[in-house]
Amino acid sequence: RKRRLVISTHAIYSFGRRRLLARLVYALLAGADHILAVGSPSRKELIALGIPAEKLAIHPNWVNLELFTPGDRQRARMKVGFDRFTVLYVGRFLEKKGVMLLAEAAKAFPEIEFAFIGTGSAESALRAAAANCANIRIVGPVWEKGILSDYYRAADVFASLPDYDEGFATVYLEAIACGTPVIATPRGCLPDFIVPDVGFLIEPTTYTLAHLLARMQSEPDFLTRARAQ
Asked: Counting C-beta atoms within 10 Å of the first and last residue's C-beta, which end of the chain has fewer, N or C?
């Protein structure tokens, strides 16, 4: 090739237990002039793979701050139909992202609405849970970003609880940009940008999630402080 080659990463690849993938990725990246890692864990694993540190820089994901803004929360709630404390999930419906963990929490907190935007392999299990749990609302995919921002604004908290090393997932940034606190796990790149001012990092277990949700309900100022940042 005659042009310089820049390659960006978009995930944490866990090369330690994926040797064939490690060899393929090294072969792909070794000839690049520069590599943009999605976060510090990504940069570290590429250095461990043998990529020279001087070729690597961190280039996190971003969101459109003209589209994803705090806006009028009450107007957004009326528009999307949220009329009580609501936990919002946006993303692929996968068990490893904590979708079914949130569905389990819905059983323990019937006074909280759990809204799910997206689609994925766990959708059948999620719909089965919704059939027995009136406070589970499956919105399905929302392609219009203007409407999606209203869902973020309307929710009391956004939650996605991966049990794997997550990359720099954009959905958390979208929620934060709309002024909505987030619940995540200390996995992958998430601790790089989810700080106490904007969210909560917990282990993806039924107990830790239930404890946090109970505190949010019993201490009204607890969430208000995070939303005000």
From this structure: N
Identify the pLDDT of residue 146: 84
Q: Residue 226: what are its φ and ψ, rounded to 5°? A: -70, -40
Cα distances (angstroms) measured from residue 196 to each of 171, 181, 193, 201, 225: 17, 9, 10, 8, 10
CB count, 10 Å around CB of 50? 10
φ and ψ of 94, to 5 deg: -130, 140
Residue 85, C-beta contacts closer than 8 angstroms, at least 6 positions apart: 111, 112, 113, 156, 216, 217
Task: Say how far apart CA 54 and CA 146 lie, in whole Å.
Answer: 40
In percent, the amount of the chain with pLDDT more than 90 equals 82
Give the DSSP H/E element, type plus range, for residue 86: strand 86-90
In this prediction, residue 226 has a pLDDT band, given cuts at 50, 70 and 90, of low
